[in-house]
What does this fold into?
Amino acid sequence: MTDKAPIVCKSARYVVLNDGNLSLGYGTILHPNSTLIIDGCNLTFGEYNIIEENVTIKVCPSYNASHEKYEKTEIYIGSFNHFRIGSYLQNTSVGNNCIINYKANLVDCIVGSNCIVSPYVELNNKNDIPNNQIIFKDYSLRENINFNKENHEKYIKELHALTERKLKEDNNLVYKEI
It folds into this structure.
C-alpha cells in the first residue's frame, strides 16, 4: 500500500448497501468516528479529501415526484476538500477546494468549487452554492471570494501529512483500497 492510498482510521465507519458503490481518491483520510453511508447509490471522492471526526456523509435514493418513485443518486465530491468536525451532508455534491465547517448541515445541495460553508449553516432542498462563495449562518450574506487554489492545496497536503503522522503514532492508521 502506498502513502497515496486512502487512509481509513480504525474507528471510521463506511456502510455500502443495496448495490451501492464507494470510491475514495488517493490521499483521502477518514478520521476516527467519521461515517459514510451509501444506500443503493454511488459516492465518488477525488483526491486529498480530509473527513474529520463525527462527520457523516450519506447518499440515498432521492424521490422523484414526477415519476412517483425513488431514484438512484450519483454524488461526486471533488478534490482538496476539508470537512470539519460534526458536519453532515446528505445527497450533496461538492466541487474542489472547499471547506465545510463545523456542524454545517447540507441536504440535497450542490456546492461549487472554492467555497467556504460557515459553522452551523443549514441548507436543504436543492440550494446551490455557486463557485467562489462564502455562506454565513444568516444565509443572506454571500461574498464572492478570490480563492488561492495553490495555497489551499498546500494546506490540505500539509494537514494530510500531519494527520497521517499522528495516526501512525497513535496506532490508529489503516491504509485501505475501497
In short: The chain is about 10% helix and 35% strand. Residues 88 and 135 are 16 Å apart (CA to CA). The domain at 7-169 is CATH 2.160.10.10 (UDP N-Acetylglucosamine Acyltransferase; domain 1). The chain has a mean pLDDT of 86.
